[in-house]
Every structure is written in structure tokens, then in C-alpha cells.
Write a structure and sequence with these properties.
elongated, 56% helix, 9% strand, mainly alpha
Length: 123
């Protein structure tokens, strides 16, 4: 292998098949259980009340306290597998040397002077 040159493996830009297959499988699992997932999230968000064994009615006490924030976190965790995250985009301006910067500033200054003269002529 020559230094700095890739001689084997995937070609640049080829998607990772294992990651793609895993994402598809998780998406299929979510799609197939969307009703259950929705029910589970609702249960976490609203909590689980104790049931009186004699009457069979729910009491005001909770076995599991309501936690809407946890339900939201769980939902977002599931969504991450189905919808890819957006990558950050960095904008990089090309560096210029000080001489070129001064030249650009002079052109800009000259343009402003021309505009000022035209405005004075109009008045």
C-alpha cells in the first residue's frame, strides 16, 4: 500500500449496507407496531394508576407517575432511526492575503466616492 493511497475496501461514497439494513429493519418494526408504540408512549405520558382490588376502579394513586418529557424522549429516540439527522454545514470563506484585502477595500472605497459624487450632482 503506497502511503496516502487507498487500495481496497469500499469505494468512496458507497453507503454502509449494514447500517442501511438496520435502519430499514427498525423502520419496519416501528411501522408494524405503530399502534402499540403510540399506546406505550401515551401510558408513559399519562402514568399508570393503582386499581382497587375490591372495586376494580382506579384510585388517585399512581403505580407509575406521569412523565410526558420521558415519553417525548422515547418518541425522539425512535424517530432518529427512521429519519436521518441533518448534518451541519460549515461555510468556509477562502483566505485572502492582506494585499488583496487592501485592494478590495480600495475598490469599495472608490465606488463609494463615485456614488457620493453622483448624489451631490443630483442635488
Amino acid at each position: 500500500m503506497t502511503m496516502g493511497y487507498k487500495t481496497g475496501g469500499r469505494q468512496l461514497g458507497t453507503p454502509n449496507k449494514a447500517s442501511n439494513d438496520l435502519r430499514k429493519a427498525i423502520t419496519a418494526l416501528i411501522d408494524g407496531n405503530i399502534d402499540k408504540l403510540s399506546e406505550w408512549l401515551d401510558t408513559v405520558a399519562s402514568g399508570v394508576r393503582k386499581v382497587d382490588l375490591e372495586t376494580g376502579k382506579q384510585t388517585h394513586e399512581y403505580l407509575v407517575r406521569p412523565n410526558p418529557a420521558k415519553a417525548f424522549d422515547m418518541f425522539m429516540s425512535a424517530v432518529e432511526y427512521a429519519i436521518p439527522k441533518l448534518a451541519r454545514t460549515e461555510i468556509v470563506e477562502e483566505a485572502i492575503d492582506s494585499g488583496e484585502a487592501n485592494e478590495r477595500a480600495q475598490v469599495f472605497s472608490d465606488l463609494i466616492d463615485v456614488l457620493k459624487r453622483k448624489r451631490q450632482e443630483e442635488i
